[in-house]
Specification:
Layout (H helix, E strand, L loop, with lengths): L17 H16 L14 H11 L11 E6 L2 H22 L2 H7 L10 H4 L2 E8 L1 E4 L3 E4 L3 H18 L3 E2 L8 H7 L5 E10 L15 H4 L9
Antiparallel strand pairs: 1-2, 2-6, 3-4, 5-6
Length: 228
């Protein structure tokens, strides 16, 4: 074995039978089809060890050159949540009253949203996700990260999946601009806010819009041996 290969280890992978794959994929799809964005949260606290495991699961995402260019802040402090809500509502007010196009506002009508974001305080926890464009280095000053947007996006998708699998609802919130998150949470200059996730249990009277998801034909095409 060469020096280059000396750090490698055997892959731990359990190959399933076709029957097991069929069963697992059907169960997985059924669970994921039940996932919905939630804007009305119970104030009941979450088991934080579960939340932390979900973050660790997100941290298993693939990333460019394995740089893992993400950071997650879990916020449960009521004062900090209030600060975040006030800052987010300030930006959202500007969005709904000038920044957003008429077409954008029209597309949002079925979801009954506006600049008021009480869920940022009602949810028992917020997860602020930051992307790291570079890493500080004592000798070089900066070390470049690669495919940062793609890597952090994959990690966020895995985080949403892990939360759903664990019985925790979430809302993907992207007030733009989001620099206030860096200021409030005291993040270093190499980090930029990427996503804000209020998480928790849905409120007992929670309702969600009646929406439909695209079919397989609407989101994919199979280029098999019969494709011409």
């Amino acid at each position: 074995m060469s020096a280059r290969d000396s750090s490698k280890i055997p892959l731990n992978f359990d190959r399933r039978t076709p029957e097991e794959m069929e069963s697992a994929s059907r169960a997985m799809l059924e669970r994921y089809q039940s996932r919905r964005t939630v804007r009305h949260f119970s104030k009941d606290p979450l088991p934080m060890d579960v939340v932390e495991r979900c973050v660790l699961a997100a941290g298993t995402a693939p990333s460019g050159a394995h740089k893992q260019p993400w950071f997650f802040c879990i916020i449960t402090d009521a004062k900090v949540k209030k600060q975040i809500r006030e800052a987010a509502e300030k930006e959202e007010y500007a969005n709904y009253n000038g920044r957003m196009s008429e077409r954008w506002l029209k597309d949002l009508e079925p979801f009954d949203t506006n600049h008021l974001k009480p869920h940022l305080e009602d949810a028992p926890a917020l997860i602020a996700v930051f992307r790291q464009a570079w890493q500080p280095d004592e000798s070089e000053g900066k070390k470049q990260n690669y495919y940062v947007q793609e890597s952090v996006g994959i990690a966020c998708g895995m985080l949403l999946s892990a939360l759903h699998e664990s019985g925790i609802a979430a809302l993907t919130h992207t007030p733009s601009p989001m620099s206030f998150l860096c200021d409030i949470l005291g993040r270093p200059p190499h980090e930029k806010a990427y996503l804000l996730l209020p998480i928790g249990y849905p409120a007992k009277d929670c309702e969600v819009p009646d929406i439909a998801r695209k079919s397989l034909a609407g989101i994919s095409e199979n280029f098999d041996s019969t494709t011409k």
